[in-house]
Amino acid sequence: MSIPSNTNQKIWLISGANRGIGFGLVKNVITRPDVVVYAGARDPAKATELQKLAAEHNNLHIVKLTSGSVEQAREVAAAIEKRYGGLDYVIANAGIAVLGYLLKDVPLEDLNEHFHVNVVGVLVLFQAVLPE
After folding, report:
1. pLDDT tens column, 52-65
2. CATH assignment of 10-129, given 3.40.50.2300, 3.40.50.980, 3.40.50.720, 3.60.150.10?
3. Among 25, 43, 20, 37, which Cα is nearest to 96's?
4. What is the pTM of this model?
């Protein structure tokens, strides 16, 4: 993928865009006239607030993007590359937090899931969008 894009518009990709900080970023950025935002969500069909926002802004594209999914990250990167020639901004916002455990009680499966989503997911996303 080439960075930056080959258009006058600034192309953004924001993961974890269906709620919280990610959704707030999308709401803020999408109001600018010179941007196109790709908003990544694990389940776009359930991202109802994001869908409402996309109905109001034709420069907002909701894409299926699960943190840590190499295949999905590559598909999104390829679609953006094909349409715009590259990206200008990438916000790796997707993450999870399961709280309520004492350190001695943390299940190894939860720790592995946190590491995969919160650490590996960032690496996977940037590997997919950076130029070769």
Report:
1. 999 999 999 999 99
2. 3.40.50.720
3. 20
4. 0.93
